[in-house]
Amino acid sequence: MSVVEHFYDAHQACYCVGGIHPMRSAHYRVCAAALVAAALAAAPGAAQESPVSAEARSLYERTRDSVAQIRVLLGGSDTQSATGTGFMVGRGGLILTNYHVVADKALEPGTYQLEFVLPGGRRGPLQIVAVDVIHDLAVVKGDTGDARPLLFRDAPLAKGDRGFSLGYPLNQGLTVVEGTYNGRSEEQYYERIHFTGAINPGMSGGPVVDARGGVFGVNVANHRRGQLVSFLVPVKFARQLLSRSAAGSPPDGAAFREHVGAQLRAHDAELMGALLNAPLPVQKLGEFSLPAKIGDFMQCGAGTEREAGKPYTVDVHQCYTLSSLYIDQRLHTGMVSFRHHILRSQDLGALRFAALQERYFAPSRSGGVFDRKHHTRYACRDEIVALPGTPAKLAMCVRRYKRFEGLYDVVLRIATLGGSALGLQSELEMEGVSFEAATKLARRYVEAIRWNR
Known about the structure:
Layout: H1 3-12, E1 15-16, E2 19-20, H2 54-63, E3 67-74, E4 80-90, E5 94-97, H3 99-107, E6 112-117, E7 123-125, E8 127-132, E9 137-141, E10 162-167, E11 175-184, E12 193-196, E13 207-209, E14 215-222, E15 229-234, H4 235-245, H5 254-277, E16 282-285, E17 288-291, E18 298-305, E19 313-321, E20 325-328, E21 331-333, E22 336-344, H6 350-361, E23 379-387, E24 390-400, E25 408-416, E26 422-433, H7 435-447, E27 450-451
Antiparallel strand pairs: 1-2, 3-4, 3-6, 4-5, 5-9, 6-7, 8-9, 10-11, 10-13, 11-12, 12-15, 13-14, 14-15, 16-17, 17-27, 18-19, 19-22, 20-21, 22-26, 23-24, 24-25, 25-26
Helix pairs in contact: 5-7
């Protein structure tokens, strides 16, 4: 496995073209292939769960009637597309869950239906009241009878405090999992709680409570390769969503798509604003000065590809923002990433080395494989530019989001020219951004590249 493949494999263990992998139940393909993040239906490592304690049993009995399984059904049938978890948060049948659990219904209301099932057997249809795509939360409403709401915890926790996650893993019935609160997850753009506990597919949207039953987090994701490494949405974002949902009537149909689009544009303005307003650090990699990690919300990795029998090596350095957003099963967006490849060879000769560079540069993203539902095809333009120390070929490819006005995916590629044994390939990728912000960041990126001859 090459350095690049290993890097992406490790990256997608936790994030999907953006984002983190939420634990939605199986029955659908969990993660679109987009860069880095995300997203979904990933199971944690095969760690041995501890026996349930008397405290956990007591909490289970006190909270079980307030935790529902949420089923996503194909419209007009009882065929199950996916499952998640939700919990009572207010009188009148209000239930909190993850956005990614109900996303199909939100964006395709004529195709999918939602249903809740409580432990006592009560079930019924659900209506979406409000969604928060950025923090992966949703409020839904159904006739839940006298099911009591759980209360949010107001006081902060300390690292090492016990927590208890509830949910319906893999259709196995309501389950309680003991774990440990470990503070805020580092480097993620939007706040997440690091929770050490075996959260599994189907538990998305379930509550995580303290020893008194106060909810402090909402199950949202786990790390595919990390044993017991899970992530929660802090309840402060649930409070904000509940407040907003009480302020007006919920949108439906096409209005819901526009509601989601407005949240994506807000994410773009915030993330790209942070990237454009921060200094762009420059690092020396061999003979080149190149853009480096921008801010604490980026994660970076590096290595060297050196394959037996190949007369060249490739030094790889890449960074990405931990800001991926789940939109639906086939669309994850909201990330910015870049990668540098430094190619070296003493044995290829000028012509073969030029062919190697061309192979790395080939803009595959402008090809014919694309999702007709979400995007237009990439349109590309290229030109020869003069960078400090070298001429270079520059190509920019852009595709438009069909359902979310004003948003684009933009890929910038740069390749140095004229080197017979040394060359640079660099790529900047921006997902779900405004064209104006993308061109500003692309310009800064290009201006930071230099060959120090």
